[in-house]
Records
---
Amino acid sequence: MAQYDVVIIGGGPGGYNAAIRAGQLGLKTAIVEGRGKLGGTCLNVGCMPSKALLHASEYYEAAAGGEFAKLGIEVKPKLNLPQMMAQKAESVEALTKGVEFLMKKNKVEYVKGWGRIDGAGKVVVKAEDGSEKTLETKNIVIATGSEPTPLPGVTIDNSRIIDSTGALSLPEVPKSLVVVGAGVIGLELGSVWKRLGAEVTVVEYLDRILPGTDLEVANAFQKILTKQGFKFQLGAKVTGAEAGAKGVKLTHEPVAGGDAVTIEADYVLVAIGRRPFTQGLGLESVGITPDKRGVIANDHYKTGVDGVWVIGDVTSGPMLAHKAEDEAVACIELIAGKAGHMNYDIIPGVIYTKPEVATVGKTEEDLKAAGVAYKVGKFPFLANSRAKINHEGDGFVKILADAKTDRILGAHAVGPNVGDMIAEVCVAMEFGGASEDIARTCHPHPTRSEAIRQAAMGVEGWTMQA
């Protein structure tokens, strides 16, 4: 029976980064993954394939929608959907092989099969052929991630009624697509098919899109998407969906009360969020009970059971790959006797639409609810020279700082490449920086990043370019 210092169940961003760090610290480590490929949801059917399609669809829309023509580039594009899907698959395959290489590089044993805990210090792995083997270990790290949340009354068949995985592999461009859920996943995948020619209607239970994000940014983003052709039905509760051979009839009614409405579409995408994945994990064998949402609680990644740790989507906090990665490092460093730490106040979030939405720290709504006095600096991309010259003037940057100390409390943006630009604010916040620190830091011209600096200047009222 194999003996390990650490056995990690789950090969997603949390799991494989935990394995890498454990290998670097000289711990004898095994990683268990049942999918057959490392990378988890993010790499195989989430973050990465969706970005491949977002990237390709942006180029197609630019060529087909007149943007290229405006730049003096005249082309008549033809969509080759099978090739678009093939290049996505090739990219994903290369990334999964890269993760597998990193396991070998860091002397981590990759065990293929579904892992379950079988009492203290034991993980049983069931291989594809049904055979089982037991791994003995001093520490078990649960990193099993999450799965799409089902919608009561709606059966996902991944034929006509699809989840996020199905939306990455549609065999055709829908003439019409209904997206249930106005969150990150729904708006990103809706954007892909909208760019390729689908009419997209978003049905959302709440009276706003992007719950949890800064309201001003969310409202501005909704206006931009509406201008792009998205249709929104907000404050709408889905009551049923009936799939047929050629389409779906989806019924919803106003949350506030009123008559039911039926929408017909080629496909319906259910994207109302994700839930922790703990099926068949054997938690009961060590006395761990998830809460009613399926979340396994943790205290500095400890489950409360000696030698059993938890990270990523399966525990509390935002379901983000980079959050899982940072938890992985901190968790393994604690196992190794080091001072593992993660700052939960500085976890950026990005929506990879066009334009992008990026956020970090507190929103205005958070600060108002907490009674914190703050100042706001804003700068529109319409006044940014690089964005203007690139015809990317939609959106703005907003920086929130403490009214007394000027310490940056949050930043929120909608605009071109803000997903990359937000990292500058994250670094400043990590060092306890003030808005003045960014405002007085020389930025290259002409770049979109100058919008961050100008917004920081605006906190103290000396924005110079607008």
Note: The mean pLDDT is 97.
---
Amino acid sequence: MFKIYIDPEVQKFILNLEPVTKAKIARNLDLLENFGYKLEMPHSKKISDTLFELRIRGQQEIRIFYCFHNEVIKLLHGFTKKSQKIPLKELRAAENKYKALTQYNL
């Protein structure tokens, strides 16, 4: 079983969502905590060698980028998905947080 660390910005993002969406996120986080690397579609998708996305489906399509770092799952960046493709801005934000995480060993 993995521990999950939620970046303060991601926590703020989640707290501002609708109650139904928050409940779905909590359920997906439980799955992620229990299955870790083995969690697959439709709940999780590998984006790059180091980044994954937690996929929350429903009225609001939510994506939360995460990584595995020092035996901990770190939620790096969350956003509301509005199109088929991942917006480059959102992907870059997650990549930058990952770089900071590994560079400064946070």
Note: Residues 19-35 form the longest helix (17 residues).
---
Amino acid sequence: MCKLNLFKEVLRNEVFPALGCTEPIAVAYAASIAAKEIEGGIKEINITVDTGVYKNGLAITVPNTGGEKGNLIAGVLGALIKQPELKMEILKGTREGMISQAKALIRAKKAKITYDESKTDLYIAVFIRTEKGSARAVIENGHTNLVRLEKNGRPIFEKKRNEITFTGQEYKPILKKMKISELIDLAEHLDDEDYNYIQRGIDMNLKISEAGQKLQKVGYYLSDLVKKGYFLDGIFSSSKILTASASDARMAGLNFPAMSSGGSGNQGIVAILVPYNVGKYFKIEEKKILQSIALSHLINSYIKCFTGDLSPLCGCSIAAGVGAAVAIVYQQKGKDMEKIALAVNNLVSDLGGMLCDGAKGGCALKVVSSTDSAIRSAYMALNNHGITELEGFVGKTAEETIYYLSKISKIGMANVDDTILEIMMEKN
């Protein structure tokens, strides 16, 4: 694969419009793929997911459901909609009567969801049986990465799998081996299609932020703090209000799509809106702002090659926040790798231990922390101040720091998801 095409692969696989939290929507998408293969009324739906998907979908409001929460209602709706071509905007296909039909299937215990602790990466398998047959769809290692489709017990589609190709996502091993300086080169060689797509993401996330500002949630209270003089009316407060409001809208299940990054809507909000707002504030050239957002997407995806799609650590912090910080430095100093390394180290030192406890309204608070830290970390780096390899778990280079962070995420925090999920299940 040509490295110059790698950015398009990242856009295609990880930067896409998503209506609602991406985990339950991915469950709905998988269910829709399976359901389209068979005719007849649904007799049984069995959904199996990894612990990360289960955790993220447990407490989140699903769009177009009248306030219903969770992966199960999303999956059943996806099976009724049968429009996999809508991908991560699948719930746009919700029609009158479908919600009551989905609830009836769940009440009758014809639809169930379980999690498989042996699955350590993103995993969704949906089995559907009707009076006319059965089908099963499996998604792995990416919210839209279909790896297997079966009809009546026989495979009709299957991706070749091995560790090197990340279950059919050939761009990831290439991305993982790259240096951040090479990612900058990619961001500086965009075509018109790329620029237009990045602009579409800005417009989409600004629109959902505007909708979220009408809710009395995190963004509202940040605005209130500005009005009452607790916060200064400046780039920090405006950026935090912008991102918090967009997250508020997503987590409340409003019917507005967000442009994702790294397969996450909240990460897309941080990765896109933070460099956009900061770039506008400092009157950075439009083309440079768009290139910086492309770099933000690449950094986010690069980090997740190391930490995984659903790390026990908050992706808004340790992936999208880092991408936004690097983008801000790039806007003002270009390919200054020393300053970029300082920005990465600053943010990781600040937010490196932030846990992911599933998608819910409180995610907006983490989005605010990520936004604040990204701007602070970049500003200090621009002034040649940063955390060095002498402290904590940061390294000499940005790449080294990201590698150490992944060790903490994958080895040091191996039992965190199970523990958090146990707590969540106890409460329910």
Note: The chain has two domains: 19-158, 178-427.
---
Amino acid sequence: MLGWIWWVLALVLAGVEMLTGTFYLLALAVAAVSGGVVGWLGGSFAWQLCAVSVTGVVGCLAAYYWHHKAGGKPPQQMAFDVGQRVQVLVWNDDGSARVSYRGSRWDAIAATPETPRRDSMVIVEVRGSVLVLGENPLSTPR
């Protein structure tokens, strides 16, 4: 009967999914395909709706649990700055610093309160836009 509408809906949902990357729309696209299959096999519109509903709920629940299994956090990005040397311009009394790195000035902090303050340091971590500095074994004491 109107089973072809499910196939068109599945294509539209899959296309929009490619723009968002949430996997919920992919689950709904699969649900629409299941409605199309039931329609293609000659099932009534009520059976098509049943197939779409059940498959949609199961698919969305699977996407939800898969997303939260990963902690709901974006994947850890590689910190390409870790291990790079920076030139410290000034150390502040609170332990923070301004450094010159990659042609601009950055805020930085010492890795620990015991970390010696030197003119040349190494990036050991990046926290947002703040560089965490550790001791550079090749630098000379200040």
Note: The radius of gyration is 27 Å.
